[in-house]
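Figure S4 source data
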Amino acid sequence: MRFPSLVIELIRARPRLVVWIVVLFQAALWLILPVLLYRSPPGDLATVLAYGREYQVGTVLGPPLAFWLGDIAFRAAGNHMFGVYLLAQLCAIATFWTLYLLARAIVGGQQAVLAVLLTMTVTAFSSPGVEFGPLVLARPLWALLLLHSWQIMGQGRRNAWFAWSIEAGLLLLTIPAAIGLLMLVTGFALATERGRRTLMSFDPLFALLVIVVLALPYLIWLMRADTLALPPWPAIADLAGSAATRKMRRSSFGRRSIRWRGISFISSPLPPRSREV
């Protein structure tokens, strides 16, 4: 008689416990190793802390939320990198737990555990998660946004709109690609019948108002920095000069190709003459 593995039985009986065990173990691993082995901040973490000390509304690196939180965690730990490493692992824990809740709502608890375990094998969720920055902070925000999007469109829970709007606004303050991610969610809503029915209510208007209020300081900074302005049109003289340059290049290329054809014809061997019998 064959007995199932203890791990399989544990996933079947206590899926939530398995998720907490593996997620906390990985978080503890990537919290202890950098503190013991790293003598300096890895990757671009030093740049994140340098920009965070200024508390600017916007920088050339993007929206400011990740930089602010990185400096706050650094100062809260007594100017030690332990606070920043801890913040990065809290983001990882929130990401995996939200992924588990989303998968459990769609496919069930046991399959949700497998989804979390398979996601943890991706390299991007291991050592790169130590380098706290906009990408690390965007992971839990994007996961929460997807969870509440499913609750709104898939389960019809209107009370999730407020949390969805907060997460969307914070995501806009975290990475420049947030607009594209929100467009993906909007496109999915427009492509499904439930999504179109959800968008017909007044809740999206209130959510849009909250998003604009949250992202308004960064939007003002973008407008003052001329980041949203279109590039200037080239002058007519520049267009004429570029057209003349292209014409000269085409003519020189044509003469060069004719010259090479002539050389290749001259240097090619003549075919052998047929001998008469």
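Figure S5 source data
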Amino acid sequence: MLLYLAIAKISTFNKIPMRYILAFFGFLFSGCATAQTGNVPKSIYDFKVEGLDGGTIDFSQFKGKRILIVNTASKCGFTKQYEGLEALYKEHSDKVVVIGFPANNFMSQEPGSNEEIAGFCQKNYGVTFPMAAKISVKGKEMAPIYRWLTNKDLNGLENSSVKWNFHKYVVDEQGKLVASFPSSTKPDAPELLKALGL
């Protein structure tokens, strides 16, 4: 309402027809939406991301499985969840794939290089599930896959934001986002297992 009154005032003061001003603002806001969703694949299966080891993680190979996506960090109070995530992956790898995305967005709790992160995960938790190269999960540098996960226009479920390390997203066997869980949700939590179809 306030925006409309402001536009009306501009129109009256500058003697510019209201329809032209409204069209301009419509273009302006549609440009913002495009910036949020532009260059982001429509399907989770179109994503190919760099792996922690330098290879490529191709999401199309996970068709028919549930996907658990987690932003990880090595110096966080939730870092011990690596153990539960690895146990989940080992026990249910025929139905579920876990993918870790190291990120340094929260209190610099993932400061290491890709090589250092890989060494930490292997040495301390024996991680065998796919780990992506270090990314950003928020802000202007947010990785495209996290734009998809957090934007309803792309994922079809909900708008969300990653509040801390070890936030969890669940994608079903058809590539649809079906649930998200906060960091405090443990890998063996009943509600998470249910979302994973276990």
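Confidence is low (pLDDT under 50) at residues 1-8, 27-35. The longest helix spans residues 18-37.
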